[in-house]
Amino acid sequence: MTHLTPERTATPRSWSQTAVVPGSVRTHVTRWLVRMLGLAVAVIVLAVCGSAMLPVVRADETAYLPFYTPPSPLPPGRPGDLIRTEPSRLVLEPSGQLGAFVGTGTRIMYRSTDAQGQPVAVTGTYIEPDVPWPGIGPRPLLAYAVMGFGMGEQCAPSRMFNQGIHASLQTGFDVMFNLEEGWVATLLARGFAIVITDGVGMGIHDSRSPQFLNRNAGGAALIDAARAAMKLPGTSLDPHGPVAFWGWLAGAHAALSAAELAASYGTELHVVGTYAAAAPTDIAAVLPAMDGNFLAGVLGYVLRGIMASYPATEQPIWDALTPRGVEMLANTGSQCLLQTGVDYMFRHIQFWFKQDIFATAAAEPFKSLLWAQRIGNVKPTGPVYLTHNRWDPFDPYSAVEQTAADWCAMGADVTLWTNEQPPLFNKLDINSMLPVFVDGERSMSWIADRFNGIPSAPNCGQIPAPA
């Protein structure tokens, strides 16, 4: 199976064409999630039991290369300035026949800054809704960061929205689903304009890895995506209109990073709120959770993110790995998330390292590097809504509770919603993936209230004081 070549035209959609319309997100998105989980299970079974029998298939990615190869040197400009744009095909699945988004996509490349504050080109997608904004004031803009689809450039969100399901098999059984499309389709149908960043290093045709889970790079890329969207011609956005940050899992880290950086890096933006689901607010706390997890291989993404963000760490990291660890880090650098899960599911991560990985992470220089990525050290701009499952197996609840407490002590406007779904097959990360959909209507209502100027109702009084 190969994905379709991205079209270079974008056709406005009518309400009758959309697969996800306003109403109960719990109904529409949960049905979509069940279909995606069913497909994922089928893919995993095929990958584990019969991938050796599959024919070699290589999807043609060359259609993307002209756009995703950044100019060198970058043209002069400021963060958020557009470098290039083009129409972007939007589909829920590869054929484009089973439903549609009620909006028109534009692929963007814009200037931003990396972990070291150096100028870089970042790509993404802006989606202009076909429907009016039913709320108060100008149309709002959601600056959206996805959960993290993988390390390979073929996994970039702006490419996934062209394909719905990616299957190139270039690194084995390389299949990935756009797990964010139900959210984006629903939010779009409710009148939100959406700009989705690929993040620093993701999608760009370059030898360097994405700067995964880096606070400076993730926050800057999201803030600059909002700036770039405001500069696009022919949109319904007010250049001074309201903006909110939205993210889930790794995207939640980027959204919260943007909220913390906005006071210094995005001062001109009218930030009205930030939504973050299952946020990994403390990467050091996530490391033990990776051990024996279905997504144990995501440790490769974390290591590559550190190497890309801080080049001086690259050789020491390679030197610290066993042969099995070298193989894991080399492979995960070009994979999408599902294959990483299949290849390294339930592995014990210590076997990838020559020394105790947890002791190494707790010692310098990695202790300081991980602390620099922590969320909760700087007061955020605007209200923040954190939604988290109490028994989240991947992003510990205690870490996000500590972040909320630290912010509350700074006088921030914080709401921590605790999902009490009991533990269920936790090594499969069900309590990281499912609760966000269960609480979807509550989450979208909170963000809509911020755009409509309704006062927030923080619950700092119910959050334990910082330790």
From TrEMBL:
Protein name (database record): Triacylglycerol lipase
UniProt GO molecular function: triacylglycerol lipase activity
Originating species: Mycobacterium dioxanotrophicus
Record field: transmembrane: 36-57
Gene Ontology terms: biological process: lipid catabolic process
InterPro entries, A to Z: AB_hydrolase_fold, Lipase_secreted
Keywords noted in UniProt: Membrane, Transmembrane, Transmembrane helix
Pfam families: LIP
Top-level division of the source organism's lineage: Bacteria
